[in-house]
Every structure is written in C-alpha cells, then in structure tokens.
C-alpha cells in the first residue's frame, strides 16, 4: 500500500512538471511491477502548463549560458504537448476527448527516442491542372502539435532577448502596438524608407544560417536537426516579399514568425546600436541651459533614428538630413544582403520625404503632419454650439434646483401641518426612540443648502447688502456719541458680518479672477498649440482609401459607379450564412483599421456598401425588393434561430459609431475571409468528424471551398486589376470539401476561425 501511494505521488508530481516516469531515479522496475493493472491502463489527465511553469521547465535545462536537451526533456514532455494542443484547439476540450488521430503518449515516446517521422506527417495537396501553382505541403494535426510545442519553447528562450522595436509573433506586440508606438514616439521625422524584398523563399543557405544562430543559445543537435527536417519536407516555408505572412492563411505556420524574428535578431541589434550611437552624438540639451544660456525662443531638435520591424516589413525614419537617410539606407541594405543573404528590392526601397509623401507600412499609409491636422481647433460655429449647450445645461440645472426647493418647501409644510394636527389632537408624541437628532440633521442639511444657494447668488446678496448698510443714521458721528458703547459695538460687529458675507465686491472679484484665469489658460494653450504646430511634426496613420475601394469593387460589393450591388455567387448560401459572410468581412475591416485617422471612411464602407450589398444579395435570392428584405431582416440584418430568438451578426450602426482605437491587438487582415466562400453540399454524405482542431463532434455537414479570385478571372500578377498587397489562398484548396460542425462553420464565416485552425490533410474530394 505504501508503494502504491508513493507511485501515485510520483505520477502526479512528474506529470505536472513534464518528466516521464521512466526517468525518475527512485522508480525501480521492481517497484513499477507492483502497480495494479487498473492503474497501469488508466489514462493520465494532464493539466495545461502556465507560462511561468513552462518557463521554469525550460530554464531547468539552462547551463553555462546554453539550453540543452530541449527536444527530449521539454518538447517531448506530455504536459507541454497537451499545452500545445490547448493552444491549437478551436474549442475547449478535455484530455479524454482528444481525437483518435494521434496519441500524446506515442508522440512523446517518438520524440524522446528520436524516431519521429516528419515526412510521414506531411500531406501534399496538388492544385488543378488548369493552374501553374506549385503543390502545397501541409502538416497534419500531430505535426502541428509538435511545431506548436517548439514555438512555445523558442518563445521562452528568445522573447526577452529581442529588441523593443521587433513586432509580430510575440505576445502583446502586434500590428496595433507597432502603430501606437509610431504615433506616440516618432517626432519630427524628415526622411524615411521602407525595406522591400524581392519575392523569394528561405533556401538551404538561409536555413543553415538560421540553425547556426539558434546553436549559439541551444546546444541540442536533435533540436537543430528537427528544424532542418521541417524545412526539407516543406512543412515550414518562409517567403519574404510575399503577401501571406501574418494573415492566417493555411500555408503559414505559427513557428515561422518566431524563426523569422530569430533570423533578424542580429540585424535588429545592429539597428539598435546605430540608434544608440546617433543618440549619443546628438544629446538633448538641458531645459535649464536653454532657458538661461540661450534665447528662450530657440527650439532645439536633436537628430534621432527610429526603426520598426513587423516580420519582413521594416520601416526606418530619421529626423536628420537626407544624406543621413541615404547612409542609413546603404547600411541597412548592406546588412540585409551581405549579412543575411536576402534579396532586397533596391528600386522600391527608396527614400521618401516624410512631409510631402506617404509611405505604406503594415497595409496603412503614414505621413508626417502638423499637430493641428490630427487635432484641429474648434471652428467658430462649434464654439457657439458649445456655449449654447453649456447655457442650456445651466438652465436645466437651475430648473432642477428650483424644483427641488419647491418640493422641499411642500414637504416641510406637510410635515409641520401634520405635527401641528397631532399635537392638537393629543398631548404629544410618544416614541420608543428619540428622533430629534435625525430631524435636526435633515433640517440642518436643508438649511445649509439654502444658505449656500443664497450666498452664491450675487444679485440677492447685493440687494440685501444695500438694504442693510445704505442710509443708516448710526454711521453719523454726533449720533454715535450719544448712544451707549454696547450698542455701538454690537452695530459695528453686525456691519462687519454684513460686509463679510453679503458684500458682492469680493464675490465679483473672485468671478473676475476666475474669468481672467480661464482666458489666460486659453491664450496659453492657443500659443502653445501654435508654437507646437510650427515646430513639431506628428505621425498620421490612414487606411488606404484607394486600395479599399478597389477591393470593394473587385469583389463585387459595388458597381462601376460605386453603388452597392448584389453578389450572385452567394445566392447558393443560406440566408444566415450570407449575413455571416458579410459580417465577417465587415468586422475584420473595422478591427484592422480602427487605429487609423480616417476610420470614418471605413465605417462608411461597412455601414453603407457592405450592408446594402448584403440586403441586395438577399433580395436577389428571394426575388424580392430591398424594402421587403429590410422589413423582414430589419436594417441590422437580424437572424432568427429555431426558438425564435434573434441574433445580430452584422455590426449595427450604433456599434460601428462607438468603435475606435481603444485596444492593442494583432488583428488578421481581411484577405482570408474576403476571397473565401464555403457552400453546403446538396448530397447526403456519411457523418464524419469535424476537421477543426480537436473538435470531437461527428454531426457535420460537408462544405465545398470556393475561391472567389478564381471566379473573378483576374490574374493576381496584373497590378492594374489586382489589389496591391492583397494575399491569396493557395489554389490547391479550391473545390476541397470540408466536414464542419455548425459552430465551426459559423466561426469560419465570422472570421473567428482562421484557415490555420483547420486540419486540411483530412479534407476530402466529393464529386
């Protein structure tokens, strides 16, 4: 019995820490043989590791400045693999509900014994013969879990070693965080350039250099060899200069972002050293020194260098001269080409003026403007409207005070009449407790409010002061000499109190002083804003209006005149699916461009073009008019379920008005949702398991994938017709059939489920 309890304790301890039982020194084979058969066959339910627990597990293998045995002791740990499953899961799941597609225990044993077959876990999807696209290699769910476990380990190893301007693939360091840094930190930029790469993939040279960089911190030959095998079988593909990194497309892997940050880490540190060197050479002057030794009207602007990198997008800005920007560009291009072996597009990596030219970064347009452009002063009409509103507010407050005084007076009269009536009818009140203190507090509070309100009224105080002090004969000297001294002293004290509390001169002086202070503050803020508008440059971030309107027209939301039109292809979908498809695109656009200065334009496109295109599509399907569709679904496009409860998927007009730059997130672009539509098959296929990650539902329906850019007959290489910077889903996924449950097909339409969360190797081909 003691041995059994000891084994149970060791099982609990080691599975929580991630160590296999066979590695525990205190468990002898003889002791293991005493374990009952029921306990041997009982599956172990792991708990997902927290970030601190995972960090402790990784740091336990840190010795002499290097990490060792990460594959066998960390990645192969069942709790780590279970945590990776939890990260990949499209829905919450229990250990007992893991699908039968792979076993955590078997995967852990294969990794620990270094016999994990990467090639066998990859599936090649071949596009149709009509296209010239290369085959797409995708990992199955088992390999995805291992890749996610490796990503988690590398994140613990390198995340704290990355520079501060490295964004993408890091927790809390997404697109909106990079844009927030640019808007808040970049001041007075004069010249900048964005690095553009020629489209090319990581080759053997890049993989070897990446592995050599990792070997500086990770002394694990098995770990390095596993990463090389992932690149060899094309389960990991890193392509620079493309339009699919960080977009949630199926050809992208979560490990790619971490490996790209590791590969660019040396380059980032060179840029950081360059920035620190410029800051040392151009130090900021002490404000006391400027105010005493120099003219106070002189403004000193130190030369600074700013840099931001989001995966393969690099932006470098400087407040110095154009010659300095050219030197920075030469150094950056040289470091990327010679140091990292990357192919830079030197023609498009051009220097632009920050004031007169816009530059594209992260799918948005940046430009240096005056502060008054971002926060324009109020117009005269707005000032008059504001003053009118304040006057109306004061009138409403006065009416409320008068109503309170009137109700209080009525209540007081009722109380006194009731008390007087009771006293007349009886000899007095008899209570078990004393209420005099409560009554005194109530009347004292009322009296204080009345007195304060009276003393705050200057006209009332002036009238009482005039009646109590003007024309008094007791001020005459011959009269005062004939009166008793006690009376004269009492009168003087009374006059002092009258002057103290009722004299309006002090109150008028206080009001005039307050008005003068407010006027001075307005003048100072105006002068400060004027000086800042003449001496400072801020960053304005805008959504690319031309690109968005071109995408709206390309997909078919609008006609050639810019008016909403129906999309005939979507008529084959259910009513709710049509609304959810439009809602997913609308929310993706709103979430992505909520940090832009012209967010109002994006709101207009969503509330007008997309909403009425959806309404017209529903009218086209039911052969009805727009008014009838609005009457049935309402303008908010409400959908009713089987129980009669309505659901609103499309953003309402009130919800759109309340949106703005309030959160820091890393939203996915709209590419994966804009050119994807899944249509339910009319045939009755046998039930199959949902292919969303770790979904154990078998009540599924088959949906066929349709890529809209194939139906548009537009070549993505044609820059005049195609939308610049718009990513594409791989051609091999066209016409594939996906067994999905109801919840996950709704999430796919709404954009909550990306194509990365689907196990495409288990998709089928149905005629």
TrEMBL record:
One of its GO terms (cellular component) is mitochondrion. CDD domains: RT_G2_intron (cd01651). One of its GO terms (biological process) is homing of group II introns. GO terms for molecular function: RNA-directed DNA polymerase activity. Pfam families: Intron_maturas2. Residues 107-366 form the Reverse transcriptase domain. This is Reverse transcriptase domain-containing protein. It comes from Sphenostylis stenocarpa.
């Amino acid at each position: 019995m003691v041995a059994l309890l000891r084994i149970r304790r060791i099982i609990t301890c080691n599975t929580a820490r991630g160590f296999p039982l066979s590695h525990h020194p205190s468990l002898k084979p003889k002791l293991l043989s005493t374990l009952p058969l029921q306990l041997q066959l009982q599956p172990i339910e792991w708990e997902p590791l927290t970030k601190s627990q995972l960090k402790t597990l990784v740091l336990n293998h840190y010795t002499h400045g290097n990490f060792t045995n990460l594959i066998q002791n960390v990645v192969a740990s069942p709790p780590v693999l279970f945590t990776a499953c939890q990260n990949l899961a499209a829905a919450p799941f229990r250990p007992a509900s893991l699908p039968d597609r792979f076993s955590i225990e078997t995967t852990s044993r294969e990794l620990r014994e270094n016999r994990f077959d990467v090639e066998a876990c990859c599936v090649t999807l071949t596009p149709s013969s009509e296209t010239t696209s290369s085959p797409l290699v995708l990992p199955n769910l088992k390999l995805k879990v291992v890749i996610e476990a490796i990503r988690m380990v590398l994140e613990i190893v390198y995340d704290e070693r990355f520079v501060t301007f490295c964004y993408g693939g890091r927790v809390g360091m997404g697109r909106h965080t990079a844009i927030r840094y640019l808007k808040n930190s970049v001041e007075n930029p004069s010249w900048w350039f964005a690095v553009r790469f020629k489209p090319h993939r990581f080759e053997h040279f890049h993989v070897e250099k990446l592995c050599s960089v990792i070997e500086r911190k990770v002394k694990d030959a098995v770990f390095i060899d596993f990463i090389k095998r992932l690149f060899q079988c094309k389960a990991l593909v890193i392509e620079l200069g493309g339009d699919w990194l960080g977009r949630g497309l199926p050809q992208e892997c979560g490990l790619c972002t971490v490996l790209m940050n590791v590969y660019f880490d040396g380059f980032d540190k060179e840029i950081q050293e360059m920035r620190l060197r410029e800051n040392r050479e151009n130090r900021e002057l002490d404000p006391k020194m400027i105010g005493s030794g120099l003219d106070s009207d002189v403004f000193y602007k130190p030369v600074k260098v700013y840099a931001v990198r989001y995966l393969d997008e690099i932006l470098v800005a400087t407040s110095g001269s154009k010659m300095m920007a050219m030197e920075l560009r030469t150094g950056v291009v040289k470091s990327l080409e010679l140091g990292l072996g990357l192919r830079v597009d030197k023609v498009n990596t051009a220097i632009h003026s920050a004031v007169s030219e816009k530059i594209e970064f992260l799918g948005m347009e940046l430009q240096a403007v005056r502060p008054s452009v971002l926060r324009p002063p109020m117009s005269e009409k707005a000032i008059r409207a504001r003053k009118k509103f304040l006057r109306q507010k004061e009138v409403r407050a006065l009416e409320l005070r008068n109503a309170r005084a009137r109700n209080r007076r009525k209540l007081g009269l009722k109380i006194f009449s009731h008390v007087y009536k009771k006293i007349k009818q009886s000899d007095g009140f008899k209570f078990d407790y004393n209420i005099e203190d409560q009554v005194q507090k109530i009347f004292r509070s009322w009296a204080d409010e009345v007195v304060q309100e009276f003393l705050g009224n200057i006209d009332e105080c002036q009238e009482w002061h005039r009646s109590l002090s003007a024309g008094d004969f007791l001020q005459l000297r011959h009269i005062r000499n004939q009166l008793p001294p006690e009376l004269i002293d009492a009168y003087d004290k009374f006059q002092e109190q009258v002057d103290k509390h009722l004299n309006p001169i002090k109150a008028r002086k206080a009001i005039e002083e307050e008005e003068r202070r407010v006027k001075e503050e307005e003048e100072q803020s105006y002068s400060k804003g004027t000086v800042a508008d003449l001496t400072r440059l801020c960053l304005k971030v805008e959504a690319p209006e031309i690109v968005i309107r071109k995408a709206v027209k390309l997909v078919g939301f609008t006609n050639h005149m810019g008016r909403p039109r129906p999309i005939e292809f979507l008529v084959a979908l259910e009513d709710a699916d049509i609304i959810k498809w439009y809602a997913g695109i609308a929310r993706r656009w709103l979430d992505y461009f909520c940090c832009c200065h012209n967010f109002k334009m994006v709101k207009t496109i969503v509330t007008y073009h997309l909403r009425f295109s959806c309404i017209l599509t529903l009218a086209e399907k039911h052969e009805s008019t727009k008014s009838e569709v609005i009457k049935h679904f309402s303008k908010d496009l409400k959908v009713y379920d089987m129980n009669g409860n309505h659901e609103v998927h499309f953003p309402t007009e009130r919800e759109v008005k309340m949106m703005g730059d309030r959160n820091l997130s890393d939203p996915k672009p709209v590419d994966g949702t804009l050119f994807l539509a899944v249509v339910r098959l009319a045939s009755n296929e046998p039930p199959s398991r949902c292919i969303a990650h770790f979904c154990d539902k078998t009540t599924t329906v088959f949906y066929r994938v349709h890529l809209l850019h194939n139906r548009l007959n537009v070549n993505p290489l044609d820059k005049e017709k195609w939308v610049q910077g718009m990513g594409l889903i791989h051609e091999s996924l066209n016409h594939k059939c996906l067994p999905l449950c109801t919840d996950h097909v709704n999430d796919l339409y709404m954009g909550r489920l990306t194509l990365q969360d689907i196990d495409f190797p288990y998709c089928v081909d149905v005629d």
